[in-house]
């Protein structure tokens, strides 16, 4: 029983896959920030083009 517990505990404490999860979270966060920024900038550019078209 003790050997099974130590085996489970050693698997939980390994940090081999932690860097992959951290990189995945960083990529997801960067993607969300990029999508929000592109949406905001796109709306502003669209408004500017609409104003230019209205003055022509």
| Unreliable parts | none
- The tally of domains stands at 1
The helix/strand series, from N terminus to C terminus, equals HH
Radius of gyration: 25 Å
* Overall outline: rod-shaped
Q: Main sheet, how many strands, which sense, barrel?
A: none
Structural class: mainly alpha
Helix content: over 70%
Classify the beta-strand content into a percent band. Answer: under 5%
| Tally of helical runs | 2
The span between the termini is 82 Å
Q: Round the mean pLDDT to the nearest integer and report it.
A: 84
- Tally of strands: 0
Could you characterize the architecture of this molecule?
The longest helix is centred in the middle third of the chain and has 38 residues. The mean pLDDT is 84. The radius of gyration is 25 Å and the shape is rod-shaped. It has 56 residues and is mainly α.
